[in-house]
């Protein structure tokens, strides 16, 4: 595939520095463990978060045209926990995204990751070739995506979540979703976008990119980016930052020196431990600052 056919998040995925396959799971082991194969080999020392003290599992979320699969995790025995949406990468609802929801639940959140690509009837986690996966995820209309997220919030409220303390975090394409949802939802209190593309390729299903939506942002967003992301040039991040500042919107950015796209994804070769751990701390502090996390 030529770069012209790839979205910027995918360019970043496909141009990570060379690596040795030592220290990675076999493909069969990765599938057994619940990880996607489309992103490449899966690291053997992935982070595994247990469910001790949590209630977690698969669920169904009522949406406009049916039921959407999802995965949730929440602290057991805690009434009215804050709600945090988890916007996934392009690879579907696989083990890394589920683990992130459990990490958030350990912080006291009712975290839920909706599988908003479900209508295509294919399991994205089982696709091993990005070329086969892209037509599915690129066909997702923004209007439908935002409606699905609103439905997820409504579901979480019915389950006892405190949607007056609503946050969202997302990775890769899900990072873009954070920006889009922050421009859409008046209920959102804060968002954190991990390397979400500020600019979109031409797509009639995506009317406005995050940068174009700068005047419409309704919630403060923290943007976490890698300086060595080959698909998201620092200049585009700086342009988004400038557009937000011009429109007097609350946002902060941190750009990690030498970090590639996907630096938080502990299952991939792109993982950078120091940057990932700092980014997670920054995320916690941001959501706490805007009263999503914490008492």
Task: Describe the protein's architecture and organization.
GO terms for molecular function: hydrolase activity. InterPro entries: AB_hydrolase_fold (IPR029058), Dienelactn_hydro (IPR002925), Dienelactone_hydrolase-like (IPR051049), TAT_signal (IPR006311). The chain is of the alpha/beta class and 295 residues long. The protein has a single domain, classed as Alpha/Beta hydrolase fold, catalytic domain (Rossmann fold, 3-Layer(aba) Sandwich), CATH 3.40.50. The chain has 8 helices and 8 strands; from the N terminus they run ααβββαβααβαββαβα. The protein has helices spanning 8-14, 27-33, 95-106, 130-137, 142-158, 173-184, 234-246, 273-289; strands at residues 54-63, 66-75, 82-87, 110-114, 162-171, 190-194, 221-226, 251-256. Strands 1-2-4-3-5-6-7-8 form an 8-stranded mixed beta sheet, sandwiched between helices. Helix 5 (142-158) crosses helix 6.
